[in-house]
Design goal:
The chain is an alpha+beta fold. It is 46% helix and 19% strand. It contains twelve helices and eleven strands.
Length: 321
């Protein structure tokens, strides 16, 4: 966690530069003084940044290799990238693309919350969806999130921040699942320069693709594996993989992976160690939301994971006594 509250101009610029990127900051003529507040929370690999300057300012930034998702909390602002321009108002989220000239203007009472993304991992996932390497930088459309995406994004930020507050790091399987969820939400929910390619129909997948995918899932379900990992290992696209699962099983690769991991989680709860907890088992198998894990578990096995663990622990206690 990082908390900065300063009226010192140079200190404010340096603090923001350390978190975001190199930039120049200019106070508007009407500004009386700077009153910068900077708070960084969330996991170290997924920092959530809250920022307000307390004065009307203009920023000229170098978003080098920095995709940044920024939501306006109060006030108003303008984001300019390349030849595009979009206005901010409270509740509006904009996706800033990397490696574009970027200019920002904030009103005196402007405040924002943003999530920094890893450009390489974002573009790697985009490539996995397409099934071929990207030949240019990913560019998000400079326009506000849609209402459904805005709601989903608010929930996502709360989820990311909750894990950063509750534990220093997530288990690898859970962290991989969280990253893929966040990046997939953006790639499929907000338009960009590869969106039309996402919608192009695939050629008929290979006949053995489904068998190989099921085998891969069975062999690697306990590892930090995601659906895009499966597609990459099988040399296909995420879209082709989804199509084949829908055709043959009327389900998705993610749902199939979840069912396998539920079986592994049940096995772990039926054979617990002294310190085994439901939360540890859920996170260890990539279930980020404990409430949903319990719901899936009960739908599949007819009892909650807590009930399973308590039922097994009862005889264990009697034997120890």
């Amino acid at each position: 966690m990082l908390h900065v509250h300063t009226s010192d101009f140079e200190l404010a610029v340096q603090a923001v530069r350390d978190i975001y990127c190199p930039h120049s900051l200019t106070l508007c003529q009407t500004a009386r003084r700077l009153d910068t507040r900077l708070d960084v929370t969330g996991p170290a690999t997924w920092p959530i940044v809250r920022l307000e300057y307390g004065a009307p300012i203009n920023v000229d930034a170098d978003y080098k290799d920095l995709p940044l998702i920024q939501k306006c909390i109060s006030g108003y602002g303008i984001l300019r990238q390349g030849s595009g321009e979009a206005a901010w108002r409270p509740g509006v989220t904009l996706a800033a693309s990397p490696n574009l000239g970027t200019k920002l203007s904030f009103s005196e009472n402007f405040s924002q919350i943003s999530l920094k993304l890893n450009k390489d991992r974002l573009e790697r996932l985009c490539s996995r969806w397409l099934g071929y390497p990207l030949d240019r930088d990913l560019r998000f459309d400079l326009r506000p999130f849609s209402a459904p995406l805005e709601r989903a994004w608010a929930t996502t930020l709360a989820l990311v921040e909750s894990y950063g507050d509750s534990m220093p790091s997530l288990p690898p399987t859970a962290e991989a699942a969280l990253e893929e969820f966040v990046l997939t939400l953006l790639l499929t929910g907000h338009s960009h320069n590869f969106t039309s390619a996402f919608e192009v129909r695939d050629r008929q997948p290979q006949s053995q693709l489904l068998r190989r995918a099921r085998q891969y899932i069975e062999e690697n379900a306990s590892s930090p594996m995601t659906v895009s990992d499966i597609a990459e290992d099988l040399h296909t696209s995420v879209r082709a993989l989804q199509k084949k699962f829908r055709e043959e099983h009327q389900t998705t690769p993610a749902s199939y992976l979840r069912s396998v991991r539920l079986q592994r989680a049940r096995s772990a709860l039926l054979n617990p160690g002294v310190s085994t907890t439901v939360a540890d088992v859920a996170l260890g198998f990539g279930f980020l939301h404990l409430g949903r894990f319990s719901m899936y578990y009960r739908e599949t096995f007819g009892e909650t994971p807590v009930t399973t663990l308590a039922r097994v622990r009862g005889p264990q206690r009697k034997r120890r006594n």
